[in-house]
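Annex B. Sample input.
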Amino acid sequence: MVKPLHICIEVYMSISNFHIDKTSPLPYYYQLERYIQSLINKGYLKKLDELQAEGEIASICNISIGVVRQALKRLEQSGVIIRRKGKRAVVKGKQKIQVEFSQKQYGGYEELEKQGFKVNTGVIENTLTKPNVKVRDKLKINEGEKVIKIIRIRSVEDQPVIFWISYVSSHLCPDLAQYNLTDRSLNSVVYELYGIRTSSVECSLEVIRGEQEICRLLNKPLDEPLIYIESTNFLDDDRVFQLTEAWHTSDNWSFNFHFLLDQSRMPLKSAG
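Annex B, continued. Sample output.
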């Protein structure tokens, strides 16, 4: 039996007050895409359920049918739904974990929870230690100064998906090694304890072969490709306070990048 999308929308709106935010820098199609994904994650839409017709979704969400088609196309490309010519789209199954990179956010613990995932973070190590040369240079600290080294592994829906090592300035966060970070956001804890909030983040991303111990912890075959993300967190005054190396499983993730262009720096069109 078809489960109408508008029923799910009404239920979900009453819970989360969802609407297409037309003041957001995120595109309308992307907001709708995330919305439908959250319905799947929360069990409102299940495998083989049919979505409403494109025109009905457009009417319900007060957006154009072109926006709906773009959102459904992206869901299809992610393997979340199956689109059939002349018929309604069908939910295929579990969707990939979405990670957001934009001027206003970088997807993490809270973002995964908003998507409806069950998220768990285990702490393997949280100690005060002497950094290697790379970490010392990245954090711009003096030789001999120690850092807080935090090794964690994150599971989503009880499957390990991220192994990462964070290095935090002990000068800025002196007692951090004493606190339990299990199932907590590191950035949230740092803000609660020290009033330190990340102002900007620089990230690099590459696909690499996983090392033996990391593959073991992520339950992946040896040398399976992993997505490696290195990020450096800055304060308002451009001081560096955190370096993180993260290894993501390659079959679970979808990375989305959103950029706002500075129109004042765009080249002017030639008068001719």
